[in-house]
Design goal:
It contains ten helices and 13 strands. By secondary structure, the chain is an alpha/beta fold.
């Protein structure tokens, strides 16, 4: 059952060196505050997965926390490359980075297979493309009934999934609304999960048609972190900070500029500093 903890305690109790960690959220509800706490606690040798690694993974990679990245499309949305990710792949700085690239569909199906405790995902995909030539983890199987050849990828079973959500109730259930990516599947596939939330409420109240509720038994730890998705956005709470995504391109291009920014804005800060973003939006 879900336990209410500070973000510092949640990360300390659930994420260790060498763990396989998924931080999901598709343009929306990206768990930046939690990612920063992982950096502050000096976690290393992590295997990380994400459907669209963007700024938070650029920061984790640039700070040397990541050994391997499992992903589908990596970049700064609407801007360009992830310069810390490129530096790690091309120049092995600050350490070598192994990569395993998939399509969005493969990642989503791999999380779903993990949630179902299956060894691999099977789907129609990777037809006429080159990814299988460079990723030996992509396979195929012949349907025993129709003889159709289907694509396969190994199930994703993280040690820990980290997400940001809108609300949790006092029983430990969690509400997601707005753009919902693979958060539900990633939580269900993981052995442990950390959820940061904008607020804790007595009752969720009216819900939108696409609302997802994670029952308390699927969640290991909940941390109250208003603004915890910034500079991405939280539906109904605050908007995406597009100016920061543009600014990150210059910050991340240079190693020294990047390290100086991280010292000032991550290592010297804490989860409570994210409250300013939620308060500013309100």
């Amino acid at each position: 059952m879900a336990e209410f903890l500070s973000l510092q305690d949640a990360v300390e109790a659930n994420i260790g060196d060498g763990d396989f960690v998924a931080m999901e959220g598709f343009t929306h509800l990206i768990p930046f505050a939690a990612g920063h706490e992982v950096i502050r606690q000096g976690r290393k040798d992590l295997t990380v997965s994400r459907m669209t690694p963007d700024l938070i993974y650029d920061q984790l990679i640039g700070m040397g926390a990541v050994d391997k990245l499992v992903f589908s499309w990596g970049g700064n949305p609407g801007v360009g490359s992830l310069h810390r990710m490129r530096d790690a792949v091309e120049n092995r700085w600050p350490r070598p980075l192994a990569i395993e690239e998939h399509s969005h569909a493969a990642m989503a199906n791999a999380y779903e297979a993990g949630a179902a405790n299956l060894p691999f995902a099977m789907f129609r995909g990777y037809i006429g493309v080159d990814l299988p030539k460079v990723n030996p983890r992509i396979g195929s199987v012949t349907c025993p009934y129709t003889r159709e050849i289907l694509a396969t990828v190994p199930a994703l079973r993280p040690d820990v999934t980290v997400i940001h959500a809108l609300r949790a109730d006092r029983a430990g259930n969690v509400l997601l609304e707005g753009i919902v990516g693979a958060q539900k599947e990633a939580v269900l596939a993981a052995r442990r999960s950390i959820v940061t939330v904008e607020e804790i409420v007595d009752d969720f109240g009216p819900r939108s048609p696409n609302a997802v509720i994670l029952p308390a038994w699927t969640v290991t730890a909940i941390a109250l972190v208003p603004g915890g998705a910034y500079p991405s956005y939280a539906h109904g709470y605050y908007k995406r900070a597009n100016a920061f995504y543009k600014a990150w391109d210059a910050i991340a291009r240079d190693r020294d500029t990047f390290r100086a920014w991280m010292r000032k804005n991550v290592l010297a800060k804490g989860p409570d500093d994210f409250r300013q973003y939620a308060a500013r939006a309100a």
